[in-house]
Amino acid sequence: MNRRVTRQSQQQETGADPRDAVAKPVTGRPRLRMAPRDRERLILDNALRFFAERGLGGETRELARRLGVTQSLIYRYFPSKDVLIERVYEKWFAEYWNPAWADWISERRLNLEERLLGFYRDYVRLVHNYEWVRLFAFSGLDGLPYHGRYVARNRAEIFPNIARELRHAHGLPSFDQIPMTEFEHDLLWTLHATQFYIGQRRWLFGLTTPVDVNEVVATRVHGYVTAAPALVAAHLAGLQAKRLASG
User: Fold this and answer.
1) How far is the C-alpha of 146 from the C-alpha of 83, rounded, in Å?
2) In angstroms, what CA-CA distances link 213 with 130, 157, 216?
3) How far is CA 67 from the centre of its chain?
């Protein structure tokens, strides 16, 4: 769904051009003096929670009321609603991703199960929350690209590292011999999606969830490192056999 917000539509919504002087807060209280950077951060922090709660169709007029400011003040810092939503998702990307994850998975001083436990426990710590789950879902429902970018980042930075380390740990062909396959991606999705689905159950569907999420993580990781080696070995052997037959 295209939600482009033009200056004309802003004027229709606010009754004023966003470049106009800012009026007094709607609460009638004197506005707290803040440095521009701090006020921008305040708006953005509240917008992230607001859109997670109301969906991306939530009106900036309501956000302004919650903040106790005028709508035109929001547009002074964020020229359109689209820009505000984009900045919300930039914040979402930055705060709910740990750049060290790929290195943790590749650290061979620990066995693979220990590495995956460390990664997934931290992954759940960051993404198993109200804002992350709902903003991920709303991006998909509104036809926006942000959830896809997050998935693509997993496919580029996380899944190949896990698949590579699984092959290395069990003496399977390297990526130089056989590049990572969709079969391996699908196996990893069965592991990875479990962590996300727990959040969906709680914050999208209002269903009960496990009290100890880390226990679920440990069970899923153990299942993967126990079953995946034989499955991947058989899959890769089949590919090699086809290559020999066709050669």
Assistant:
1) 13
2) 15, 24, 5
3) 25
Residues whose CB falls within 8 Å of the CB of residue 219, separated by 6 or more in sequence, listed in order: none
Distance CA 101, CA 84 (A): 28
- pTM of the entire structure? 0.82
Q: Nearest-5° angle of CA 139, CA 140, CA 146?
A: 45
Whether the Cβ atoms of residue 112 and residue 169 lie closer than 8 Å to each other: yes
Q: Identify the CA nearest to 78 among candidates 92, 93, 89, 66.
A: 89
From 7, 179, 175, 158, select the one nearest 79 (Cα to Cα): 7
Domain residue extents for the chain? 7-88, 96-246
110 torsion bin: left (phi>0), alpha (psi -120 to 50), beta (else): beta
Burial tier of 130 (Cβ tally within 10 Å: 0-12, 13-18, 19+):
middle
| Topology of domain 7-88, CATH | Tetracycline Repressor; domain 2 (1.10.357)
- Give the CA radius of gyration of the chain: 23
110-146 per-position pLDDT tens digit: 999 999 999 999 999 999 999 999 999 999 999 999 9
In the chain, pLDDT over 90 holds for what percent of residues?
82
- Token readout for 141 is 């429902």
